[in-house]
Write a structure and sequence with these properties.
Low-confidence stretches: none
Largest sheet: 6 strands, parallel
Shape: globular
Mean pLDDT: 92
CATH architecture of the largest domain: 3-Layer(aba) Sandwich
Distance between the termini: 20 Å
Number of helices: 12
Helix content: 40-55%
Order of helices and strands: EHEHEHHEHEEHHEEHHEHEHEHE
Structural class: alpha/beta
CATH class of the largest domain: Alpha Beta
Radius of gyration: 18 Å
Length: 270
Protein backbone atom coordinates (compact mmCIF):
# COMPACT_ATOMS: atom_id res chain seq x y z
CA UNK A 1 0.00 0.00 0.00
CA UNK A 2 2.86 2.38 -0.83
CA UNK A 3 2.27 6.08 -1.44
CA UNK A 4 4.61 8.18 -3.56
CA UNK A 5 6.00 11.56 -2.51
CA UNK A 6 7.46 13.68 -5.32
CA UNK A 7 9.61 16.79 -5.05
CA UNK A 8 12.05 18.69 -7.22
CA UNK A 9 14.65 18.33 -4.48
CA UNK A 10 14.83 17.96 -0.73
CA UNK A 11 12.04 20.24 0.48
CA UNK A 12 9.44 17.49 0.21
CA UNK A 13 11.23 15.65 3.00
CA UNK A 14 9.40 17.98 5.41
CA UNK A 15 6.12 16.57 4.07
CA UNK A 16 7.43 13.00 4.07
CA UNK A 17 8.43 13.30 7.72
CA UNK A 18 4.94 14.45 8.69
CA UNK A 19 2.98 11.88 6.65
CA UNK A 20 5.22 9.04 7.80
CA UNK A 21 4.67 10.10 11.40
CA UNK A 22 0.87 10.18 10.95
CA UNK A 23 0.74 6.96 8.91
CA UNK A 24 3.46 4.73 10.39
CA UNK A 25 2.13 1.56 8.72
CA UNK A 26 2.23 2.99 5.18
CA UNK A 27 5.41 2.55 3.13
CA UNK A 28 6.43 5.76 1.32
CA UNK A 29 8.59 6.06 -1.77
CA UNK A 30 10.24 9.47 -2.06
CA UNK A 31 11.45 10.75 -5.45
CA UNK A 32 13.69 13.82 -5.52
CA UNK A 33 14.49 15.26 -8.96
CA UNK A 34 17.68 16.80 -7.62
CA UNK A 35 19.39 16.75 -11.02
CA UNK A 36 16.90 19.32 -12.30
CA UNK A 37 16.28 21.38 -9.14
CA UNK A 38 15.18 24.04 -8.58
CA UNK A 39 11.91 23.99 -10.54
CA UNK A 40 10.99 27.50 -9.45
CA UNK A 41 12.89 29.14 -12.31
CA UNK A 42 11.70 26.74 -15.07
CA UNK A 43 8.82 27.29 -17.50
CA UNK A 44 5.49 25.46 -17.19
CA UNK A 45 6.11 22.95 -20.02
CA UNK A 46 9.47 21.96 -18.57
CA UNK A 47 7.97 21.53 -15.08
CA UNK A 48 5.12 19.45 -16.53
CA UNK A 49 7.48 17.09 -18.40
CA UNK A 50 9.81 16.60 -15.42
CA UNK A 51 6.94 16.07 -13.00
CA UNK A 52 5.26 13.49 -15.25
CA UNK A 53 8.54 11.58 -15.55
CA UNK A 54 8.93 11.48 -11.78
CA UNK A 55 5.34 10.43 -11.18
CA UNK A 56 5.66 7.61 -13.73
CA UNK A 57 8.72 6.35 -11.85
CA UNK A 58 6.70 6.30 -8.62
CA UNK A 59 3.87 4.42 -10.34
CA UNK A 60 6.46 1.83 -11.35
CA UNK A 61 7.26 1.42 -7.63
CA UNK A 62 3.63 0.47 -6.93
CA UNK A 63 2.46 3.93 -5.80
CA UNK A 64 -1.00 4.46 -7.31
CA UNK A 65 -1.35 7.65 -5.25
CA UNK A 66 1.36 10.30 -5.54
CA UNK A 67 1.61 13.50 -3.50
CA UNK A 68 3.32 16.39 -5.28
CA UNK A 69 5.20 17.68 -2.24
CA UNK A 70 6.45 20.50 -4.45
CA UNK A 71 4.47 23.71 -4.64
CA UNK A 72 5.97 24.65 -7.99
CA UNK A 73 4.89 21.35 -9.55
CA UNK A 74 1.48 21.61 -7.85
CA UNK A 75 1.06 25.14 -9.17
CA UNK A 76 2.45 24.79 -12.67
CA UNK A 77 1.68 21.18 -13.65
CA UNK A 78 -0.95 19.50 -11.47
CA UNK A 79 -4.15 20.85 -13.08
CA UNK A 80 -2.89 19.94 -16.57
CA UNK A 81 -1.81 16.49 -15.35
CA UNK A 82 -5.18 15.76 -13.76
CA UNK A 83 -7.13 16.98 -16.80
CA UNK A 84 -5.06 15.43 -19.61
CA UNK A 85 -2.63 12.82 -18.35
CA UNK A 86 -3.45 10.91 -15.13
CA UNK A 87 -5.32 7.61 -15.84
CA UNK A 88 -8.51 6.74 -13.98
CA UNK A 89 -6.83 4.13 -11.77
CA UNK A 90 -4.19 6.57 -10.45
CA UNK A 91 -4.30 9.74 -8.38
CA UNK A 92 -1.91 12.69 -8.19
CA UNK A 93 -2.64 15.24 -5.45
CA UNK A 94 -1.06 18.60 -4.65
CA UNK A 95 -0.21 20.49 -1.49
CA UNK A 96 -2.14 23.74 -1.99
CA UNK A 97 -5.67 22.66 -1.17
CA UNK A 98 -5.04 21.43 2.43
CA UNK A 99 -3.31 24.73 3.13
CA UNK A 100 -6.16 26.81 1.74
CA UNK A 101 -8.75 24.73 3.57
CA UNK A 102 -6.91 25.43 6.83
CA UNK A 103 -6.65 29.14 6.03
CA UNK A 104 -10.37 29.36 5.26
CA UNK A 105 -11.32 27.04 8.16
CA UNK A 106 -13.19 24.62 5.92
CA UNK A 107 -13.43 20.88 6.46
CA UNK A 108 -11.48 18.54 4.19
CA UNK A 109 -13.44 18.09 0.97
CA UNK A 110 -15.93 20.89 1.69
CA UNK A 111 -17.12 21.90 -1.80
CA UNK A 112 -19.72 24.49 -0.75
CA UNK A 113 -19.70 27.90 -2.49
CA UNK A 114 -17.00 30.46 -1.58
CA UNK A 115 -17.77 32.63 1.43
CA UNK A 116 -16.39 35.44 3.55
CA UNK A 117 -13.60 34.37 5.91
CA UNK A 118 -11.99 36.00 8.92
CA UNK A 119 -8.57 36.56 7.37
CA UNK A 120 -8.56 39.40 4.83
CA UNK A 121 -4.85 40.12 4.22
CA UNK A 122 -2.60 37.17 3.31
CA UNK A 123 1.09 37.16 2.47
CA UNK A 124 2.22 34.36 0.16
CA UNK A 125 5.90 33.43 0.02
CA UNK A 126 6.74 31.05 -2.84
CA UNK A 127 9.09 30.35 -5.74
CA UNK A 128 8.93 32.64 -8.80
CA UNK A 129 7.17 29.92 -10.84
CA UNK A 130 4.53 29.34 -8.16
CA UNK A 131 3.86 33.07 -7.88
CA UNK A 132 3.65 33.45 -11.67
CA UNK A 133 1.13 30.59 -11.94
CA UNK A 134 -1.37 32.33 -9.61
CA UNK A 135 -2.51 28.81 -8.65
CA UNK A 136 -2.85 29.75 -4.99
CA UNK A 137 -5.15 32.66 -5.80
CA UNK A 138 -7.17 30.45 -8.18
CA UNK A 139 -7.69 27.71 -5.57
CA UNK A 140 -8.45 30.28 -2.86
CA UNK A 141 -11.16 31.87 -5.04
CA UNK A 142 -13.02 28.52 -5.08
CA UNK A 143 -13.35 28.69 -1.29
CA UNK A 144 -13.24 32.31 -0.11
CA UNK A 145 -14.16 35.82 -1.19
CA UNK A 146 -12.80 39.19 -0.14
CA UNK A 147 -9.24 38.01 0.60
CA UNK A 148 -6.34 40.22 -0.48
CA UNK A 149 -3.26 38.13 -1.37
CA UNK A 150 0.15 39.75 -1.76
CA UNK A 151 2.62 37.29 -3.30
CA UNK A 152 6.40 37.52 -2.91
CA UNK A 153 8.62 35.48 -5.26
CA UNK A 154 11.47 34.28 -3.03
CA UNK A 155 14.30 33.85 -5.50
CA UNK A 156 17.43 32.16 -4.18
CA UNK A 157 15.99 30.68 -0.99
CA UNK A 158 15.60 27.11 -2.31
CA UNK A 159 19.09 27.16 -3.81
CA UNK A 160 20.60 28.32 -0.51
CA UNK A 161 18.74 25.62 1.45
CA UNK A 162 19.69 22.88 -1.02
CA UNK A 163 23.33 23.99 -0.79
CA UNK A 164 23.20 23.94 3.00
CA UNK A 165 23.97 27.69 3.26
CA UNK A 166 21.74 28.53 6.21
CA UNK A 167 23.19 32.04 6.71
CA UNK A 168 22.42 33.02 3.12
CA UNK A 169 18.95 31.44 3.30
CA UNK A 170 18.12 33.41 6.47
CA UNK A 171 19.35 36.67 4.92
CA UNK A 172 17.27 36.07 1.78
CA UNK A 173 14.16 35.28 3.83
CA UNK A 174 14.50 38.53 5.79
CA UNK A 175 14.98 40.47 2.55
CA UNK A 176 11.89 38.92 0.93
CA UNK A 177 9.74 39.56 4.00
CA UNK A 178 10.86 43.20 4.04
CA UNK A 179 10.00 43.52 0.33
CA UNK A 180 6.51 42.12 0.88
CA UNK A 181 5.84 44.28 3.94
CA UNK A 182 6.57 47.38 1.90
CA UNK A 183 3.53 46.44 -0.20
CA UNK A 184 1.43 44.89 2.60
CA UNK A 185 2.57 46.39 5.92
CA UNK A 186 0.16 44.42 8.13
CA UNK A 187 -0.56 40.89 6.87
CA UNK A 188 -2.82 38.84 9.12
CA UNK A 189 -1.57 35.50 7.85
CA UNK A 190 1.44 34.24 5.95
CA UNK A 191 1.58 31.18 3.70
CA UNK A 192 4.92 29.41 3.36
CA UNK A 193 4.18 28.18 -0.14
CA UNK A 194 7.21 25.97 -0.64
CA UNK A 195 8.01 22.73 1.16
CA UNK A 196 11.58 23.93 1.71
CA UNK A 197 10.39 26.90 3.74
CA UNK A 198 9.44 25.05 6.98
CA UNK A 199 13.20 24.73 7.47
CA UNK A 200 13.26 28.54 7.64
CA UNK A 201 9.99 28.92 9.56
CA UNK A 202 11.60 30.49 12.63
CA UNK A 203 13.26 33.11 10.42
CA UNK A 204 9.98 33.88 8.62
CA UNK A 205 8.17 34.21 11.97
CA UNK A 206 10.83 36.53 13.41
CA UNK A 207 10.85 38.73 10.29
CA UNK A 208 7.04 38.91 10.10
CA UNK A 209 6.69 39.75 13.78
CA UNK A 210 4.04 38.82 16.33
CA UNK A 211 0.38 38.73 15.37
CA UNK A 212 0.91 37.11 11.96
CA UNK A 213 -0.39 33.55 11.79
CA UNK A 214 2.06 31.43 9.79
CA UNK A 215 0.70 28.45 7.84
CA UNK A 216 3.19 25.73 6.95
CA UNK A 217 2.25 22.72 4.91
CA UNK A 218 3.68 19.46 6.21
CA UNK A 219 1.24 18.72 9.06
CA UNK A 220 -1.76 19.92 7.04
CA UNK A 221 -0.86 17.65 4.10
CA UNK A 222 -0.38 14.72 6.49
CA UNK A 223 -3.86 15.24 7.96
CA UNK A 224 -5.38 15.52 4.49
CA UNK A 225 -3.64 12.37 3.23
CA UNK A 226 -4.76 10.37 6.24
CA UNK A 227 -8.35 11.44 5.58
CA UNK A 228 -8.05 10.71 1.83
CA UNK A 229 -6.74 7.16 2.34
CA UNK A 230 -9.52 6.51 4.84
CA UNK A 231 -12.11 7.59 2.26
CA UNK A 232 -10.39 6.09 -0.81
CA UNK A 233 -8.47 2.97 0.34
CA UNK A 234 -8.46 1.63 -3.23
CA UNK A 235 -5.65 4.08 -4.03
CA UNK A 236 -3.25 2.51 -1.55
CA UNK A 237 -0.85 1.06 -4.13
CA UNK A 238 0.73 -2.37 -4.36
CA UNK A 239 4.20 -1.28 -3.24
CA UNK A 240 5.48 -2.63 0.07
CA UNK A 241 8.92 -1.09 0.53
CA UNK A 242 9.87 2.41 1.67
CA UNK A 243 12.77 3.93 -0.25
CA UNK A 244 14.35 7.19 -1.37
CA UNK A 245 15.09 7.79 -5.06
CA UNK A 246 17.02 10.65 -6.66
CA UNK A 247 18.02 11.76 -10.15
CA UNK A 248 21.04 13.44 -8.58
CA UNK A 249 24.18 12.02 -7.00
CA UNK A 250 22.89 9.54 -4.38
CA UNK A 251 25.74 10.06 -1.91
CA UNK A 252 25.60 13.84 -2.04
CA UNK A 253 21.80 13.88 -1.79
CA UNK A 254 21.90 11.37 1.08
CA UNK A 255 24.32 13.57 2.99
CA UNK A 256 22.15 16.67 2.49
CA UNK A 257 18.96 14.79 3.41
CA UNK A 258 20.56 13.44 6.57
CA UNK A 259 21.55 17.01 7.46
CA UNK A 260 17.96 18.16 6.68
CA UNK A 261 16.13 15.64 8.83
CA UNK A 262 18.88 14.99 11.38
CA UNK A 263 18.57 11.23 10.87
CA UNK A 264 20.23 8.83 8.46
CA UNK A 265 18.70 8.90 4.97
CA UNK A 266 20.03 6.77 2.11
CA UNK A 267 19.01 7.63 -1.46
CA UNK A 268 19.19 5.24 -4.43
CA UNK A 269 19.52 6.20 -8.12
CA UNK A 270 16.14 6.77 -9.71
Amino acid sequence: MAVGVFDSGLGGLTVLDAVARDLPDVPFVYYGDNAHAPYGVRDADDIFALTCAGVERLWAEGCDLVILACNTASAAALKRMQETWVPADKRVLGVFVPLIEALTERQWGDNSPPREVAVKHVALFATPATVASRAFQRELAFRAIGVDVEAQPCGGVVDAIEQGDEILAEALVRSHVEALKRRMPHPEAAILGCTHYPLMEATFRAALGPGVKVFSQADLVAESLKDYLHRRPEFAGAGRVSKFLTTGDPQRVSDKATQFLRRQIRFEPA
